Amino acid sequence: MINLSKHIIFFCVAVLFTQFNLTGGELQVGKSFQYKSVASAISASVNGDTIIINGGFYKEANLVIREKIILIGKNNPIIDGESRYNILSIFSDSVTVEGITFQNAGISFIEDNAAIKLDSVKHCIIRNNTFINNFFGVYLAEASYCTITGNSISAQSKKETQSGNGIHLWYCKNILIENNSIEGHRDGIYFEFVESSIIKHNFSFENLRYGLHFMFSDSCTYSENRFEDNGAGVAVMFTHRITMVNNEFIHNWGSASFGILLKEITDSKIENNYFYKNTSGIYLEGCNRIIIANNDFIENGWALRLMANSMDNIFRENNFIGNSFDIATNNTKNYNLFEYNYWSEYSGYDINKDGIGDIPYRPVKLFSLIVERNKPTLLLLRSFFAEILNYAERVFPALTPKKLVDNSPAMQRLQ
Amino acid sequence: MRTLSKIIKYQLNDVFRSKWVVVYTAFFFLISYGLLTFSHDSSKVLVSLLNVIIIVIPLISIVFGTIFLYNNKNAITFLLSQPVERKLLYIGLYLGLIIPLTLSFIIGTIIPVIIFFKVFNENFTTFLLLIGAGIFLTMIFGGIAFLISTYNEDRLRGLGISIFTWLLLSALYDGIVLLLLQVFQEYPLEKVSIALSILNPVDLARIIVILKFDVSALMGYTGAVFQNFFSGGLGFIIASSALLIWIILPLFMGMRKFIKKDF
Questions:
Q1: Which of A344, A376, A384 sits opposite B170 (nearest CB)?
Q2: Most buried among A96, A343, B6, B116, by the most CB within 10 A?
């Protein structure tokens, strides 16, 4: 009988112990707590533990997490990399990092020092952290099913060669990047060999090079992001099946700036985006079978620059308003389709009142062709002579591509 | 001084009695008002206004200025029989032309802008620049008109030369510039093109305004060179003195001829 009750007690304790282990222990870090340093807490932790880092300044770097733990900052703790080291590396799945400020991960030309580095992990969450003045902000290599959300990432880099990327992804899959704000890095968000990931509702601004830099990353979606005042805008290269919807590209202005630079992109969708005051709204080179629809191109230098090696793209129901040039091309032929767009410079009429202009619109002007070949002639922009040239060419098209024409231009701005 | 103000007063009376000032004001009013009602986008309105200003103002100023002097020939001859200094008479006539032209341009353009003031919140300085360009162009082409009509006794010939001058400065000159830039495109032409644009007041006015629209970034290296030149202190001094010379030189040459001329 006693034996049995012993067994029962042992069983209960065992159950309790496993229960305890499932919810995890709580390790407090701080000056007046059990653990004085983050490193000691991490090394004492086991799977399922929660480490709570209390407010304070921690000069700790090269932290390594190898257990499935949760790292939470309370009262805004700051972890400082002393401008020399990598701060936190995560080698375990299902790690969560929340509410911590990481600063001064050091610039290195040999190693990619980052505030948080995730290497070959799954299901990690980086949430509501602040990153200040790091070489790389969040660095993911061969990670999958991770979430990076609500972080504020900033740096004051001056030179491209001495700065890293805000959020850097390399060989990743199914990552969600949401509600982050990134400024002052080399590239705001960097994607290389990433698949099926989502970039949503981020604000990337005043980065030295690109707001978003995107290469060899098939089947990704980016939506509702805002890219503003980046050195060269957004670059998307060598990628298939990409979806870009509801983004805003604003004031990416400079002699080599783009709203989006598209190079070797196929079978993609660019819809409902807003391009305002970019040097070039969209630059297309070697792009095939892209649908560009319902976008607003407003007051850009060039709304579209369409290179001759781009074919079978469809431009439908876009608004082109107040751009210095609607379209520039180096092509004499055209293998793309333009239809139902609204062109603010269209001067045709609509007799049957169906909302579609009765005469076709040719968006490539002679003057834009001349400028494309000889840049200094831009000196004559908006001059009377350039207007005369454009008018003459419109009446008797000889030099501009005859087939680059919108046969059904809208009369009213499309909503 | 009293003679000068008397002459100007007489001229103004004369000008305001005729209907053309009203028409000119109404023209600018309608353009400006129309643009603002069709589009609430200030930069678009400014670009359209720029087009109107660099074409219409030189044309009207030069054609009207030429006719103005011919039409007043009898009055001038009469006044010259009085003890009136020729220099003063010439300047009085000039101001009598420029003041109403400028006033009707400013009034016509500004009233709609005041009505739609909200539209212009951010671009108001550019708008002022545009008005400034218009005033300069009026003064320059008024002076050129006076020069042409003092030198040519024949009305038809004077008018022909005026229209040709306008065509030359507004369109042909740019054609030549384009040709030069195309032929010598292998060479760095940035400084040459700055010089070329300073030599023509219409181009100068246009470039100063379009640089405000941030066109500079569009132009790459050329734009950067231009931006640096025109936004720098030296460039600003050179540009404004070029405009001043364009006002003073034709006026002075015309006046010298007018003083010696046998009516």
A1: A384
A2: A343
